[in-house]
Amino acid sequence: MNRTEMEMSGPGGNRRTRTVKRKVWGGLRQWKLLGMFEIDQQHEFYSLTCMMKEGLCAAVQNTIDNPIPNEFSEDDYKLEVTQIHKDFRMETFAGPVFASLRRSLGMSEKEYQHSLSSEGSYLQFISNSKSKADFFLTNDKRFFLKTQNRREVRFLLSNLRIYMEHLEKFPHSLLVKFLGVHRIRIPHRRKKYFIVMQSVFYPDERINARYDIKGCEVSRWTDPAPEGSQVIVVLKDLNFEGQFITLVLFHQCERVCEADHQRPWLLRQVEIDTAFLRELNVLDYSLLLAHQPLHQDERNHTLSFATLIMRTKKSVTTGSGPAVPGAVLEEDLTEVNVRTSQSQITETSVDGGGGGGDSLDQDELSDRAGAESAELREFQAQNRRLLPNFKNPLHVIDGPEQRYFVGIIDIFTVYGFKKRLEHLWKRLRHPGQTFSTVSPPEYCQRLCQWVQDHSK
To answer: What is the pLDDT of residues 75-119, one digit of tens each?
Structure first.
């Protein structure tokens, strides 16, 4: 038991705890913006986060040294690997499964390891969440680490297979990407579970507003930071009233504006993801939303219809394309436009009837069109979209003026007996008002409706 724990356990512990906290917080070094603090040697979590970094480095090295299987058995989903360190033990759950998810996101293990275990200190994020969890960020702010209780971890691991199947079927899902589940054991202290997640708000240097949306009214207002302040405040539903996620652009000269397809995609993907959570019988999850202004050179991107079709086709072909599902790199556009032009020339020569042996006959053209049509149907069925050429593209949607960061988090609250009682109590306490604790079908429908009502 450390000094802080002993003071908490003794007589007058509450008073002493406040004194210790004031001392600890007074020594914290601010990290660019308030609400996020560097965990330096004076921080109460310094020792813990150093152990996390060391343990995660070794855990990822284990996946580097042992190739990921192409197919997973039930044992892989139940796998627990314990690594012994000088002052602690680190247990990693379903390591190969999470490594395969990282790979599907275009993330190398070395890159992931470097981010988790770089020399820079972790950051503590001060959340206004009611959860008792602790939130940490890697120094580059790319990955979140969040402490979880045993029940939540068991829930995730028991549903890991269907979670992976959902992401495979819908690779552009907005669900938070869980990248690792671990347990750290320190002698004479309670074991601590934590998960590693991809940050929805990455990179966040230019983000000027953040929201946590649940689609209801009760307790859904947060006082904004004072004007001119640099404090990070995560706002809520009522703070967003009167605003919209604006994704629509006007058509220009028969050219297809990519953003015109974004709102239908967003509505459909929220519907797909919340339906999945409804089947898991969960509620109280949040739609994270943030926005930042686009630079001038990022605005008014338009694509010809032919180029749009070719990019769509390329994003379906994952074998030779970029690692991130659906992403199309800027250098690919030249090749796409050349291939489009060649295709148009070939079709003209066939229609003109004067071509030689190099032209395609009508049957070959029909077969090619059929194959492309099937690929486009697959693309549509998976609700894919053309991802922006940007870091963290799965959670980024560009409108005409703003770049939006969107993701669904906190998917561990099951609608059990306790939540049913809470629902009945809130109905009596807040008559005529909407609150978060409702049945999963109602929660799902309400959040979908919120997105529809607040986007255009």
So the answer is: 999 999 999 999 999 999 999 999 999 999 999 999 999 999 998
Average pLDDT over the chain, rounded to an integer: 81
The tokens 């190739």 sit on which residue? 67
Do the Cβ atoms of 81 and 91 come closer than 8 Å?
Answer: yes
**Rounded CA gap, 153 and 271, in Å?**
25
Strand order in the sheet with 396-398: 234-236, 209-213, 286-293, 402-409, 396-398
Token couple for 394 = 């799965």
pLDDT over 90 at 161, yes or no: yes
**Number of residues that this document lists for the chain:** 456
Cα 144 to Cα 49: distance, rounded to the nearest angstrom:
12
Mean predicted confidence (pLDDT) in 203-208: 92
Sequence letter at residue 354: G
Cα dihedral sign, 268-270-271-276: positive
CA 427, 429, 433: angle at the middle one, nearest 5?
Answer: 60
Exposed, middle or buried: residue 93 (CB in 10 Å: 0-12, 13-18, 19+)?
buried
Is the model more confident about 396 or about 337?
Answer: 396
